[in-house]
Amino acid sequence: MGRIIIFTGKGGVGKTTTAAAHAVKAAKDGIKTLIVSTDMAHNLSDLFMKEIKEEPVEILNNLWALEIDSNYEMSKHYGSISEAFKKMLPIENEKDGEVMEDIVVFPGIEELFSLLKIKELYDQNIYDLIIVDCAPTGETLSLLKFPEIFSWYMEKLFPIGKVAIKVLRPITKVAFKLDMPDERALSDIEKLYVKLGKLQSLLKDREICSIRLVTIPEKMVVEETKRSYMYLNLYNFNVDGLYINRIIPEEINNRFFDQWKQIQRNYLDEINSVFSNIPIYKVKWYEVDINGVAGLERIIRDSLHDENIFKILKATVNEIFEKTEKGYRLNVYLPFTNKKDFDLFESGTDIIVKIGNFKRNIPIPNIIRKYSIASAKLNDDVLSIYFE
Ligand SMILES: Nc1ncnc2c1ncn2[C@@H]1O[C@H](COP(=O)(O)OP(=O)(O)O)[C@@H](O)[C@H]1O
Ligand SMILES: [Mg+2]
């Protein structure tokens, strides 16, 4: 069974560098590895000083690289879908048409196709390890939650089966001036829907996929890293490693850096305490930027000794349903949240946890549906919801 390790973090913190260092280490350890970039700002070509495109290019013995062109993926597989969405919306004039054009392309949908490509590559079963150099966290998060949101849309838009849509088509056209998607688009939409479900299971599979966060010891980045960790946990992904990059070496003796070193020490302390349950790797700030395999080997030598580094480093299950005296308890792991930050409600067969702009639907198992929520408590980063 192959492995997928996804590296993400804020822009410029060292995602590409860290991901590539792992890729080189894996290849040298004899693991057949593919490094894939889904970030639209493709940097693998620059880093490896080799032209890298949509087909895997051999970089070293055991190491291949590929940069996904999400626009290309999208048009290749799903051209008719956006057309279908467009047709469904009533367009009165040219100008509306242009506005609709933007609306039917959901934000982040292009990037989503990059992840589908990763699933395709995984299914081909050619590589033992796929390392993903992902877009900055904000985008990654919207990508990772996208299958969930998209499924939700699909269920609302197409709650009825294909047959029903066929029957309904002439009626909707007359009554609402709405076109239903034609058969080809419909089957494309169905296929996409099924694929997204599978993609989500793959990325959440704790035996296969790890998410690793890259950060630097500075206030804004640390704050964003904590938020990302919380959201990724909310969506039940396995985050099992944190990389602190650009740490100023202690031996640097330059007054300009004295205060910086103190600032970094403070954030290092904070990071060490909040991420105490996952492995933390520290990478120093080198005197030059990192280029080519030789540069990456310095990082491997200095910071990536851990022989288990490609293994799944933590496998906590984030959602646990437990039987209680009066009913059931659902535990959701939510680090770094405050009681006042989240809302909780029931919707149909789902329970919805809302934190800021993020919303997570947790399907309620059949046996629990006859109970209702009695209370909820946040304790030690675990949200316990009681069904009675
Ligand atoms: N520890 C480090 N020491 C020196 N330069 C670094 C270090 N980490 C990253 N860099 C340099 O910083 C720049 C940004 O790193 P990169 O990995 O491309 O970030 P990201 O992919 O997160 O945008 C690159 O030029 C890289 O060579
Ligand atoms: Mg990058």
TrEMBL record:
<dbReference type="InterPro" id="IPR025723">
    <property type="entry name" value="ArsA/GET3_ATPase-like"/>
</dbReference>
<dbReference type="GO" id="GO:0015446">
    <property type="term" value="F:ATPase-coupled arsenite transmembrane transporter activity"/>
</dbReference>
<feature type="domain" description="ArsA/GET3 Anion-transporting ATPase-like">
    <location>
        <begin position="3"/>
        <end position="299"/>
    </location>
</feature>
<dbReference type="GO" id="GO:0005524">
    <property type="term" value="F:ATP binding"/>
</dbReference>
<dbReference type="InterPro" id="IPR027417">
    <property type="entry name" value="P-loop_NTPase"/>
</dbReference>
<comment type="function">
    <text>Anion-transporting ATPase. Catalyzes the extrusion of arsenite.</text>
</comment>
<keyword id="KW-1278">Translocase</keyword>
<keyword id="KW-0547">Nucleotide-binding</keyword>
<dbReference type="GO" id="GO:0016887">
    <property type="term" value="F:ATP hydrolysis activity"/>
</dbReference>
<dbReference type="InterPro" id="IPR008978">
    <property type="entry name" value="HSP20-like_chaperone"/>
</dbReference>
<dbReference type="Pfam" id="PF17886">
    <property type="entry name" value="ArsA_HSP20"/>
</dbReference>
<dbReference type="Pfam" id="PF02374">
    <property type="entry name" value="ArsA_ATPase"/>
</dbReference>
<protein>
    <recommendedName>
        <fullName>arsenite-transporting ATPase</fullName>
        <ecNumber>7.3.2.7</ecNumber>
    </recommendedName>
</protein>
<keyword id="KW-0378">Hydrolase</keyword>
<dbReference type="InterPro" id="IPR040612">
    <property type="entry name" value="ArsA_HSP20-like"/>
</dbReference>
<feature type="domain" description="ArsA HSP20-like">
    <location>
        <begin position="326"/>
        <end position="387"/>
    </location>
</feature>
<comment type="similarity">
    <text>Belongs to the arsA ATPase family.</text>
</comment>
<keyword id="KW-0059">Arsenical resistance</keyword>
<dbReference type="InterPro" id="IPR016300">
    <property type="entry name" value="ATPase_ArsA/GET3"/>
</dbReference>
<keyword id="KW-0067">ATP-binding</keyword>
